[in-house]
Amino acid sequence: MNVHKIEEEINQLKIKLLFLQNRLQFIQQNCDHQFQGNQYYETCVKCRKVNVLYY
């Protein structure tokens, strides 16, 4: 592989990653959360969103 093909593949993967991050954020914002966890953090069993409860 030459440098240009590698750079193009990196750019395509960055675009896909950004799309997936935005989609995940949208899903987590619109989820009817059901949290489970302990005194330090809780995780939604539906969308896997994490809430930190203790620092």
TrEMBL record:
<protein>
    <recommendedName>
        <fullName>Serine protease</fullName>
    </recommendedName>
</protein>
<feature type="coiled-coil region">
    <location>
        <begin position="3"/>
        <end position="30"/>
    </location>
</feature>
<keyword id="KW-0175">Coiled coil</keyword>
